[in-house]
Each structure stands twice: as structure tokens, then as C-alpha cells.
Amino acid sequence: MGAAPAQLFPEFLANAVGAEGLLAEVVSSLIGATVVASIILAFSGVAGPWAKRKITAAFTDRIAVDRIGPFGLLIIPAASVQLLAKELIIPEGVDRPTWDIAPIILPASALLGFSVIPMGQIGPLNIHLADPEVGLALVFAFASIASVSLVMAGYASSNKYSLLGGLRAVAQNLAYEIPLIVTAMSVVIFAGTLQISGVVGAQTETLVTIAGIDIPAWFAFVNPFAFVLFLTANMAEIGRNPFDIPEAPTEIVGGYQTEYSSAYFVLFYLGEFVHIFLGGAILSVVFLGGASGPGPESISFIWFVVKVWGFFLFTQWARAAIPRVRIDQLIEIGWKGMLVLSFANLVLTAVIVGVIA
Amino acid sequence: MSLERPDPVDDGAVERTPDELEALLGDLVVDRDDHLNAPGFVIRPDTVQETLSVLKEQAGYDHLSVVSAQEYENRYESIYHLKKYDDPTQEVSVVVPADKDNPVSESAEPVFRTADWHEREAYDLIGIEYDGHPDLRRILLPETWQGHPLSMDYDLDRPQIATLPEHANPLQEHHKDADSDTMFLNIGPHHPATHGVLHLKTVLDGEQVIDVEPDIGYLHRSEEQMAQSGTYRHQIMPYPDRWDYISAGLLNEWAYARAAEDLADIEVPEYAQVIRTMGAEMCRIAAHMLALATFALDINGDFTATFMYAINDRERVQDLLEDLTGQRLMFNYFRLGGVVWDLPEPRDEFFSKTRDFLDQLPESVEEYHNLITSNEIFQMRTIDTGVLPPEVAKNYGATGPVARGSGVDYDLRRDDPYGYYDELDWDVVTEDGCDNFSRLLVRMREVEESAKIIEQCVDLLEDWPEDERNIQANVPRTLRPDDDTEIYRAVEGAKGELGIYIRADGTDKPARFKIRSPCFSNLQTLPEMANGEYIPDVVAALGSLDIVLGEVDR
């Protein structure tokens, strides 16, 4: 990073009003967290009822929502009211506390992940809540709590389809989390730190200059192979085609979320979208230079938005175009293919970095 | 007994005269009861297996099309309509009378697997019991149903309430054994992958399917009974549209038209035959497009673009059919002896619209190949899954794209020509893969063949002299086919051999109207394809069978 590192969001808030001490820290952190969560929830609110429909419609030669509001945008409040007004049906025999907690864990875990994600700047405001030294490890830890929620939902629903979905979720996450993290490790070797600002900072230098345009040293350009591996594992992590098998509506009727309705369903749905955005955020932090992009640093929030929405668009494209693999094929790809490739990548990177450094 | 007969080789290709067949069967035959389409041999109810084995193994009759059962004043009767896969014009009917008071006859299941469901249906609707049947239960009606609806003493006015049977206990003894721990799973009747109200009773070991049993009848609408209470001339024709309602209406109508026209000896004008051929092939394209679309849903998931693309193409055929028939789904366009009206005016506009569609079709098919069949994940999912070997397919009486996907070269349009097909230049499509992928490929290639047929029909129709455009033969206002004439006739529907058996009793309504549904026979093969595979493969196999529950249950 060129200039002095920008202040983190809570510090900025505390300094702005000149408050100090523990209370100020707590309050400013809470305010910061609320702002960040609101941004992400707003993304999901736009994505779920509106953008997803519009994008899928564009892929499938349809028009989708266009009746209320400009471009059908008012479907967002309308859908919110409609979804929340639905009756919550609690099936007989569900394992109550577990069944109720599961839909809360999914969006919560994904939102937690955003606590360490640098989301770029709006003017002097640096939207970045915390920057611990183990930031990257932390964000993967948060992201993988999601599978706990899926297992809880699958088990507690007392439904065989849900159970199958839960089992599939575990199998899938085990098979893909390891390659995902091992691939991220290769980036850590490059950057020499787990701190997220360090990982992002390592990507700000210029890799090459082609025809007067500086190509930054984003790890996606430095190691495209690792990028593709990570992208694939990330798709499995967030459970989108070709890896949407824990839900697989045409096979197991929605898997773990089969029995959920009303607000609980919304929470799951929301959690999935937050999870997709978290996946996009991790991808941009680790491989796409965080929130950096052309132009002054004060507008870098825009680049962050572009990157995570770009990833969202990519997931929807995959949904429209790619068939779903079978569960045994998925396990095979994960354990026999991705795992081996990711370790090969790790070792190679380590050797190369060792030789150069 | 059969060992003594001098018949060394399986000579399926040799055509035998009825008398030679009678000689071959020897004293198994107690009487002759010839049908319009085939010689009929009456046999004793305890020699069914023996007779059918002789016909299957020594005379090459390897296709049991259908079992039609009925009740007479003095007896019950099951008719086994046999054909050859190599030459379906060689037919023979085996007539098995059963005692009026104690209707029992031997089951044909050990000889032809397909007899399993057909005999269950006969038991369910007529009340004949089949001795030696492995699993003689009701098939279309609920298990608690009282009486047999197509039998003579059945009280149609008595209301019946079918209660829901208690849910099968997943931990019952037979779902578990010493080595494995299995789970019973109800797939359907309301499930996204069953394409209708089909119920699959599935036993799983983890994700693997150990046993799957289709449970049908949720969409049973007494179509046979309704046809039996309609008059030949006009009242029956609307019903076929409602069997395979996936826009295969004209193909179904043709099945009735063909059977009734042959029964009443009606000649259809050539011009009407060309129109029929064109309309029927349009229906086939529409039906296959939907099969492709829903198969993509099964494999890709419910946001796939392929589904809407195929529906768009189907929509264009649907528009053509609407122009032609005035209806989009329930066409009711055929009449005995012709069609209801001529091509829409202005004719040129219809022709150019049709040609536009045909011109754009290769591009669409190319796009489907790009999107799905050449996709590696798609191939991984479909190749070598849901395998149906040709011998098994024949044993189950599978027809249509399901049989052709297993390399069984059987297409009634070519092998038992009707309409204008034998005048046109087209090919029967077969694939040898025997898997889900082959069945899909067969449908995609058949779409192209159908397009070829339509194009030739359009050429013919364009140049047809104006004063020879005869769309309807002279048919009496009331049709009364002769008493005690029986016929079984089939056409190549979208899903396979769609046949109709009619027995006339001298009145203007059929005494027995039996529908041979291709989906019914094809669905029977599902356990063969699915056992031992994973759940997603069962879904794929079911999708590749392309069943329509309206036709399975009738």
C-alpha cells in the first residue's frame, strides 16, 4: 500500500466524534457492523427477489418481473411482505431447538465472514471492520460454519429428503473445503501473511505493463491455475451448479430446506445469497486484489461491488448452463482431482517462492 | 412337449400362414377365433405359458403388445396380442377364455415380463385372476376398491371412498437385513422429477437405489370406459387427445382413426393422409421437444436455459398446429375417413410459416447439441447410466424411442406402414448405447427426421391440384361394424406403439375398447434401469423414459 493504511471503519467513527475508551470502541464497532451488515443484506435483498430473476430470465429468453415499479424493482418490497406474511408451517416431529436455530446460523455465519473483508472506500471512509493477523483463516472458518447449519436443518427436519440433503452437504463440504483452503495457502505463501490487508497489499504492485496499461499483480494473474482451482472449489462451497447437489430440487426436492416455510425459508434463502456474496468477497480478496481497481482509492467500494456482483452473475450463469454432477462424481472430483491438484499447486508455489526469495 | 416338435432354429423372419401356426401349436389350439388383424387361436386357460413359449421361441413372436381382457355373457376372455419386433405385420392373437364363475387363467409373466402389469390391469378392471402371477394386485385403482369396474355386474352408481393406506413403516423388517441398513423413500406422487402424479416406492442404501417400484393410477380417468360409451363416428375422437396430452394429440387420434377405419373398412383420401402425416409429425416434434426440455431439467436443475429454449421451439410447432387444427392442445382434428377441415387459408402463409420453422430447426438442434449433448458433465451423467439391454427392452414390450435407444430397430411408421409414410423419404433412428444418453439422442435425431417428413408433405400439399383436395371420405352417419368383429391396430405414437383393440357387437358403440399405452409398457422397465444406481440416475432414467401419466393411467 502506498500511503499510510487507511483507518478501519470503527476507528474512523470513534475518531470522527473524538471519543475514546472501551465504550467508544464497542459502540463504534457495533455501528460499523450494522452498516456493513446492512450493505450485504441490501445486496441480498436486491439479488434474491429481483436480480436473480432478471438474470435467469435473460439467460432463458424470458422477461421476468416487470409489472410493479421501474424494471419491476418494487417486487423487492412486495416479495418481502409476501414472504414474511406466509404461514410458518412447523411439521410434526421436527427437532425443535435445532430446527429453529439452523436457519439463523446460515446467514449469521456468512455475515460474520464480512467482518474481516475490506470492502473498499467511499471517500475517506474505509469500509473494513477488523484486520486481525489471522484474517484469512478466520474468514474461512466463518464460511464453513454454514455447513453446520445445513446438517442441523437436514437432521432436525425429520424428513428423508432433508436428511439426504444434509448428508450431501457434509460430503460436499468435506471434499471441497480442503482444496479450497490449500489453494488459498499458496497465496499466503506469496503474500507471506494471513492478515487480509497484507494479502491485498501484496497484489497492488504492477505485474507487467502492456501497451501502457499496468496489469496489477493480482494473484489471479500471477497464478491463474490456482485461481481456477479456487473458483471451482468456491462454487462447491456455496453450493451452486454444477455443485448444487445438497438442494437438487429435481432429485431431493430442495434437500435440507424442504420443510422450511415463511420467515425460516427467507432466512435460508438470504443466507445462501449472503454466502454467495461472501464467496465473491473472498475470491476478490485472495485473487482479485481486494477492492482495488483503476481510479482513485476513494471510489474503490465501487470496484468491490463490481467484483462480488460479477461473481454472483457467474454463479447464475453456471446455473443456467451447466448440468449438475452426481454425488459420487462430485466426491471423486473433490478427493481424487482437486485435492491432488491443490497440493501440487501448493508445493510448486512453495518451491518457486523459495527459489526466488 | 415342445422338445418333440421338429423345429430346430429360431426362425423369426419366416412368415407362417395361420394354418402352419395352428399345426405348430398342435393340440394346444382348441378353436379358432380370427381377428381382423391376425389369426386368433383359442387355447385352454392352463396352457398359456406353453403356447406363448412355442410362439415366442419357435415362431419368433417376441413382442407381446398388450393383453386385452373382457367379460362376455358366458365367459371371461384374455387376449394376448403377439407381434414380431422384426416385422410387426406378422401378428397372432392368443385367446384365453376363462370360466364365468371362477375366472382363473395361467399367467404369461414367466414368458413375457411385460405381462406382469398388463395382467394386473386385467385383474384390476375386469376381474380375471392369473395363476402363477408373481404379484397379482390392483394396479390402477386403490387397493381397497370393491369390484372390477369393467366387469358386467359392477355397480357404476355405487360411490366408493378410497382411504389413504397407512404410510409404510421405513423400519419394517424387510427393509433391513444383516449387512445393510436401508431407507424407504416415497418419491412422488408430488415430486418435481416424476413429471406428473407418479409414485415411486424406493428403497435406498445410502444414496444407492436397491429397489424401486412404480405405483401408478393416480391419473386414471376411465378412458376405456368412456370410449365404450361413445359412438364410433364422433364421440370417441376427442378422448385420444387426453391420453398423451403432451401435444401428441394427433398421433393419438390416429391410433383410434386407424383402428376404427380398418374395423369399418373406410378408405381415407390420399390428400387427407398427407395432411394427417404432416400434422402427426408436428405433434411428434412438439412432444420430443418437451421430452428434451424436461430431461434437461432433470439433469441440469431447474434454472437451466435449455428448458426454455426447447419450450420456445415447441411453441413454434404449437402455433403451426393451432393454425392447422384451431386448437393448441386438444386438437380433435381427425375424423373417421379424413380430417375435419382443410389447411388454413391463405395456404401460402401457412406453408411459408411451416418452412420458416423447418429452416430454423437445424440451428436449434445444433444449439441443443452445444448446450447439452456435447457438455462433458452431461455426458458423465447420462452415458452408461440407466442401461436397458435390447433383450430386456423386448421382454418388457418397450417401444418407441426407448426401444430404439437400445438398438431395437422397430418403428411402426416403416414396419407397418399407414398414412403416407411409405411414400416419403426418411429414416428410422436407432442408437446402440442402451443408456439415458442414447434415448435422448434418438429423440433429437427423430426431430430432424420428422422435419424431413413435414417438408416433403408441404411440398406435396403445395402442388396438390385444387379439385382433388378431398379431405373426407364418405362415411355413414352411424357406424355399426359387424357383430363380433375384433381388431387390434397400432400406430407409432410419440412414446412408442400406441395401439387400440376394439370389439364390435353390432351396435354403434364399441363393446370393448382397450388402449395399449406405450408409456405403460415403457415405465415397467424402470426398475431394470434404476436398481443399483444412484438417486440422480433414477431421476435421469425416468426422464429419459419420457412418460406421460395421462397415458400410463388412462
Describe this protein's structure.
The complex is a heterodimer of chains A (357) and B (554). Chain A is mainly alpha-helical and 357 residues long. Chain A has 13 helices and 4 strands. Chain A has one domain. Chain A has a two-stranded antiparallel ribbon with strand order 1-2. In chain A, strand 3 (206-210) and strand 4 form a beta hairpin. The two termini of chain A are 20 Å apart. Chain B is α+β, with helices and mostly antiparallel strands. Chain B folds into 2 domains: 2-131, NADH:ubiquinone oxidoreductase Nqo5 subunit (Beta Polymerase, domain 2); 223-553, Orthogonal Bundle (Cytochrome-c3 Hydrogenase, chain B). Chain B has helices at residues 18-25, 48-58, 115-125, 223-228, 249-264, 270-300, 305-325, 347-373, 376-382, 390-395, 400-404, 412-415, 436-462, 518-523, 526-530, 535-545, 549-553, and strands at 29-32, 40-43, 63-71, 75-83, 92-99, 104-106, 129-131, 183-187, 199-205, 208-215, 334-335, 338-339, 485-492, 497-504, 510-516. The two termini of chain B are 40 Å apart. The chains are: A mainly alpha (357), B alpha+beta (554). The A-B interface holds A 56, 59-62, 160-161, 164, 167-168, 241-242, 244-245, 248-253, 316, 319-329 and B 170, 183, 185, 191-193, 207, 297-305, 307-309, 312, 371-372, 375, 377-378, 380-381, 534-537, 539.
